[in-house]
């Protein structure tokens, strides 16, 4: 329509003549007629569709009316069915209630009849003194409904002229009589050790409702067994070493056997959950008897007296301790055949202390194993899962657990093991042996196959054996606080006694005797057979560690010193240098020893060791962390002294040597000019002379040192070499051929000094880059900046700065621009 209006609007604007108006009028009339025809047709079609829709709706209304009629009919039928169903359900419910009442009446009558039968049988058995039959019938009566016995019907039906009493009164009388009889029989059988009669009587108590009486009697019986066995053990020989640990172990075995074997009958007759009641009562007796073992152990072994003597010894000055120890050794020599009590001299000897600690540790170990067994069985009988495992209250709050802490048993063990560590270490110092180095003092490289070929002080070997022994003693106790405290003691002992008082003092003592003129050479003229024998003896000692350590030296230090008096003073200085090297080696190898003793043997090779010995709570995890922290602390303190000892050795012995060896290097006839030509280009005599002197002077040290010590020393040497050669390079004037020769000499020097140690080779990186810049062509440099071109600079990681590269290029005398 809008299109037609626009068209007409255009035509109106173009009208100019009457004929155009007439034509437009005719057009409008024609289109009006056509529009009217279309509208009439549209209206007719719409009315037709509307009528059809009305007829269709009428038909649907008719159908819906029919459906509603049928629905009303069905609803009426459902309502009738519902009423019928309700009537049927009511009848069924009434019949079911009647059936239940009939069944209940029947069960009641049957149980009354059973009650009367059991009472009759029990009465006959009671008259015949057959109390077992009486108990079984009482059990059957107790299994009946409790209301039956007290019902009015039962009170009228069950009594008879022979048994006029009410059923409940009669059963109570029989229970009291049976209880008395079974208790008497149980005690009599226990006194006569009649196991069959004991078991029979024990099985009867649950039948008459006396479970706890039976369990109490049984618990007392077991406690009496434990007490009697304990008395037998303690009345035996108590002087023999280890007897108290064996006594406690035997006591724990008895209890564990009883718990394992007797749990079956208790589970059958009483119920397995009742085992915890027995275990709780038995544990009180075990605490008592185990505490008695500990008290007798402390008395016989004079534990308090020993601890007091140890404390007094620790407070005494060191000189008095040494004097007292000498007097004690003399006294033992004079009274070797006297009794133990007469031979005791305070403080206790190392051998006696070792025996005491061994037994003490075994006692605690046996108790720890028993607590683990008790805890596992306790939760099994309670049908509980405890993760992580925790000690039950009879253990955690038990008398013995409290006694170990309150009576200072654990603290006394800590004091004794710390004293044993101190005394044994001091004894090893007095017996120190140092190895001979003659087989290593050679210009030929010596290949070490294992740790046993490295020369170390016998003190380290003794210390390793000692630490392993004390660690075993602490771990075996199964007491987490003991191991934790011992690791703290070990860290303090290691730092104070070994690192400071022994190693550091040795270095300070030998430091003034070192000189830059000293070289290693063979001075030991002792026969080889002696050294071999000592090596075998030391290897046997260290076999306790599981290590393949080389034995101690051929001679004791005192013998070495006496032999030194017969040689010239130069040899004496060399011997001091040897000793210093041995102590440096000892310090470095000690790191491996400690790592093996702590991490490898405790955590890696025996991953379940801490879990097995310390099974409760988070103890294994915390102790594992404590072991790792202890090792880290020891190694950290050791490393400080390592670096200090090597630095002292370097400054005292090697610094001057290195300056002398390096002086001819980068010298081509003139100290300031390194101008080479065809005649002297192949002449590498200076560096070859350096290689020869280096091997002669350094290979013996490399043969002696372990890899870590040699690497530390070599690092200091290389730092000095690099510093000296860099200073030398800045003073040279170099031509192109000289730069090439300089590179050859530097490469040979690096190979000689570093060999295949690429970490140390990196220290020469700046020198090699300086020499590389000297060898570059003029075309490799930028004329404007004077530095190397960008494509060359981007090809490697430069340590030399651009200013240094420009300065280096200025050293060349034959550059073109």
UniProtKB/TrEMBL annotation:
Keyword check for Protein transport: yes
Biased composition (Low complexity): 320-332
Record SMART domains: Cog4
Protein name: Conserved oligomeric Golgi complex subunit 4
GO CC terms in record: Golgi membrane
Compartments in which it is found: Golgi apparatus membrane
Domain COG4 transport protein middle alpha-helical bundle: from-to ranges: 171-508
Membrane topology: Peripheral membrane protein
Organism of derivation: Zygosaccharomyces mellis
A Pfam family matched in the record: COG4_N
InterPro entries (alphabetical): COG4, COG4_C, COG4_M, COG4_N
Signal peptide: none
UniProt superkingdom: Eukaryota
Gene3D superfamilies assigned to the protein according to its UniProt record, in alphabetical order: 1.20.58.1970
Renumbered residue ranges of the record's region Disordered: 319-340
Keyword annotations from UniProtKB, A to Z: Golgi apparatus, Membrane, Protein transport, Transport
Protein family membership: Belongs to the COG4 family.
Protein's UniProt keywords contain Membrane: yes
One of the GO biological process terms: protein transport
